[in-house]
Amino acid sequence: MLQFKTIIATSIAKEVDLKPEEIQEYIEIPKDSKLGDYAFPCFRLAKTLKKAPQVIASELKEKLTLEEEVIEKVEIVGGYLNFYINKETLAKEVLQEASSKKEDYGKLSIGEGKNIVIDYSAPNIAKPFHIGHLRSTVIGGALYNIYNFLGYHSVGINHLGDWGTQFGKLIEGYKRWGTEYDIEQNPIDALTKIYIRINEACKEDESILEDCRNNFKKLEDGDSYCVELWKKFRELSLKEFEKVYQLLGSHFDSWNGEAFYSDKMPEVVELLEKSGKLVESQGARIIELENTEAPCLIEKSNGSTTYATRDLAAILYRARTYDFAKALYVTSYEQNLHFKQVFEVAKLLGLDPKYTDNLIHVPFGMVFLKTGKMSTREGNIVKLEELLSESITRAKAIIEEKNPNLENKEEVARKVGIGAVIFNDLANSRIKDEIFDWDIILNFNGETGPYIQYIYVRTKSVQEKAGYLPEIDNIHFDVLTDEASTKVLKLLYSFSETVMQAAEKNEPSIVSHFLIELAKAYSIFYSENRIMGEEKEKQDARLYLTYVTGMVLKQGAKLLGMEMPEKM
User: Which of 37, 82, 147, 336 could lock 116 by a disulfide, CB 3.0 to 4.6 Å apart?
Assistant: First the structure.
């Protein structure tokens, strides 16, 4: 496809002492399309050329040589040069590219041969999979898809919370009250009750907390009773988690959790000892850091390990196993300090800087209840499986009301209900906190996942009514030069760039916003341009634009982890 921005930048570069790449960075897209499709701010050159921006704009306009078939006109507005692309050429470029690439439209190969490791979801074993875990799961899943779309090889890692002091607590609770609970029948609920109960006991009696800590030390040392219980808790928990992952369509390439690194931590300690930075403090061993407000705890006073030690062992393993170009950690911003410390200490492990310089924390905002923060210890949480089931139920009720004769109602309700939850989470900047509200999360009106699905279904309905897809060679591109058609085409043209921006910022909401804009633009196009029953040239051109729009809506939704129903 023609790269309009590159063409403009190259043309300007011939007349000024700047490289095309630099100029391309300055080129903007005006918010108001009446001011052109691209704009170059000439005040960027004022200091170098010692002239007023308007004078520079005027002189450049006279010198630039741009083909009318590509850029139909150039105008001066203030100190800006505004460029208007040829609408017929735009239509031709987009639709021919889509005809050639089909479902691969917009895909790039910029990441070819590079691995991206993405650590996401990571629920804690023996604890409920609640809505707080939804964010990491869907943000990480979207980034996995986005990087693959750009040609990278994504490696999705579910770094399960299957090690740590909480298991010492669970083991102690199970020793004391295990016969009172049926952990086989309803494992997560039973283990949660035990966990809440043992935490209460620890608050009342410090010696019980010490017993819990000793249990974890025994687990680390391979005590057979503790290890067998741990395995049982892990296996039962994973079966429960899998139900949620199946509903969400989540995929992981590795389930290596914290426990996987238990035999890999001595090497970390050894390497840190060699660095000369590992020092003793109150019986524990720490690394003092200049760039963080607290030291990094490597070993506790009883010799047991920490989250940091396990994360450092994981960095070593992942660098050696995956030779990653980037390693992303998708967790809440509450862990900002933890990852700042870990990434700093990782520089002491002797790894190539190409690894340690590309460790990236991708933080996201918290999910709060209206009553405040969720806590498994306190027992105030919203289970993710319940949320997803409720969303599917609500979607089914709407279908029963509006289209009771729809085929495959159960399947459509699942796609719409799950899509609503996923899109709601990815609609806004990931760093924003969310207050959990059933009515907001399951709202199917407005700028939502179901709205995008509805517009996609409309594109399918138009194609089904037509009963054919025109040949690209028969399309008259000049039919698609009206404002509504051009708006859709410009969005379709920007699809690749949108996905690249989402990857650069590790921000899936950029794709979400794109899909809403495309759905809205097609809705206006549909209402302003009759498709069926028009003369053949118009019908074919508008039908082909409808086909490409539906294809991109489906591909974009797939990047977010949403499925599209064919009918609603």
Answer: 147
